[in-house]
Amino acid sequence: MDQVARGLPEGGVVTGLRARQPGPAHCASTVAIGIADFLVRTETERVRLFRKHLEATVTRVSPLLPALAATEGLSLAGAVKLILPPEDWPWRPLFEFPPGLARRAQHYKVGPGSSAGAEIARFRRAFAKPGLILRDAGHERGRFAIRPVGAVLGFTAALGPCLLTAFGTSALLKLPYELPETLSLALPGRPLEQLIQHPIFEGRGYFVSRVQPCLSDRLPVVMFRAPLVGFRVPWAQTGFKGAV
To answer: Total domain count for the chain?
Structure first.
């Protein structure tokens, strides 16, 4: 059958026809896919820069934290890899005055099952991103959380009924019971392991520097010095390639 018989003009060229244009629904879908892809790429890059920021700034840690993680069978490197930036970073810088954060951590009740709902909420806010809560305030084994503050990876953790916090060289150990005034006055200068026995204190040479009452409930807070040690975020050692 020739071209004319098939209804085509002689020469086989059809004129006057237009390519079908995509409809509004197709265009909207394409835009939505593009936006989703942009958001994924943006968040991936934001997390990558955040981790590079931690790599450049977080260089020290209290020796109490790796010792405590080891006794509890926790991977500190694995925990740090889970730290994510706050939703408003980098538009708002990471900043927290360490003494203020330490005071808030120490103001919470201690002991299993002693945390009310509002107290748990305060704990979660204090150790929200860029912090990481390993055990919540209401956990049967007590709370455990880490948070980078400036150059230091700080933490707060329950030691039985006690609460240990360190965001710098000075560490705080909150006791769940009152001490006789004569004992409080006699403690400064004495080895910490004479007051409380725990593997992370034994043979470490920690001495009580001061005992003061907690502002919220007047329970004693034992202060002692634990000089900081060097710390490298785990992706600085293995090479971070940007995967979330």
So the answer is: 2
